[in-house]
Write a structure and sequence with these properties.
This protein is of the alpha/beta class and 289 residues long. Helix content is 41%, strand content 18%. The chain folds into two domains: 3-74, Orthogonal Bundle (Helicase, Ruva Protein, domain 3); 95-277, Rossmann fold, CATH 3.40.50.150. The strands form two sheets. Strands 5-4-3-6-7-9-8 form a seven-stranded mixed β-sheet, sandwiched between helices. A two-stranded antiparallel ribbon has the order 1-2. Strand 4, helix 8 (146-158) and strand 5 (165-169) form a beta-alpha-beta unit. It is elongated.
């Protein structure tokens, strides 16, 4: 069977099992099975595969059909045009999180700032993307998981930004040595009940998904911590889930009563990023949320 033929069969099998982007996922799995890049794949579509190669590929397809994400099977995921090493120690970067990076770049280019904190960095996708686009800014990337920071370190090395990103272990903003100009965070925001109902933690780490009873536990704590960790004229950018714009806006305004807060939708019109902007005269209020 040729590569083109096996890709066609894989697309049918994946699509029949409700796998979105079946063509793309089939390509990724075949490239991984054969250890080739995309250019070579398309140059050799008429190449016959050996029985061993076919068996290896269909084994990967079966893993995918069992629910294992392709990113974990292949060991990498593209994010913001970059390739990141991924394993089951970290959450898989989502395309919608690229909006958080875009908004952070807009803020950094329109305001004077020299320090950014990526909170809950995971694999380091946000921090690395920012470092490669903002050469003059110091970036701190924190995570409570030592395993996640090890994956982030691998990606910092892969993209040549080890000297640009300071990896810090601890609870969100607590390990920051000093206040920063911009806080960027994609924290766990899925309600605990939803994680169990949808089986979301079957493969991905629960700690990277679990936002508590209403999905806002981590966001509440970040708002509290930010009072002492955000500089005058500072900005906070958070990724949020559907329907969380109102509750998170109220949380932010309780901590920063005079700040400007805006909710921004993603390409599907879903509330995705919320921003808080301070002016020099504004400061946070220490509250119990």
């Amino acid at each position: 069977m040729t590569m083109q033929q096996i890709l066609g069969r894989a697309r049918e099998v994946l699509a029949r099992n409700n796998i979105e982007e079946a063509q793309l996922e089939g390509e990724i799995l075949l490239r991984h099975a054969l250890k080739i890049d995309r250019a070579r794949l398309y140059c050799e579509l008429d190449r016959e595969l050996s029985d061993e190669q076919e068996d290896r590929f269909w084994h990967l397809v079966q893993r995918r059909l069992s629910g294992e994400p392709t990113a974990y099977i292949a060991g990498h995921r593209e994010f913001y045009g970059l390739d990141f090493y991924i394993d089951r120690r970290v959450l898989i970067p989502r395309p919608e999180t690229e909006l958080l990076v875009e908004k952070a770049l807009e803020v950094a280019r329109t305001r004077t700032m020299d320090t950014v904190a990526d909170v809950g960095t995971g694999c380091g996708a946000i921090a690395v993307s920012l470092a490669l686009n903002l050469a003059h800014i110091k970036i701190c990337a924190s995570d409570i998981s030592a395993d996640a920071l090890e994956v982030a370190r691998i990606n910092c090395q892969k993209h040549g930004v080890v000297d640009r990103i300071q990896l810090l272990r601890g609870d969100m903003l607590e390990p920051l040595p000093e206040p920063v100009d911009l806080i960027v965070a994609n924290l766990p925001y899925v309600a605990k009940q939803e994680i169990s109902r949808a089986g979301l933690a079957d493969f991905e780490p629960r700690a990277a998904l679990d936002g508590g009873r209403d999905g806002l536990d981590k966001i509440r704590r970040l708002c509290q911590q930010a009072v002492d960790k955000l500089r005058p004229q500072g900005v906070i950018l958070l990724e949020i889930g559907q329907g969380q714009g109102g509750p998170v806006t109220r949380l932010m305004q309780r901590c920063f009563p005079s700040a400007s807060v805006e909710v921004m939708p993603d390409l599907r019109g879903i509330e995705r990023v919320i921003s808080l902007c301070l002016t020099p005269s504004q400061s946070g209020a220490k509250l119990t949320l």
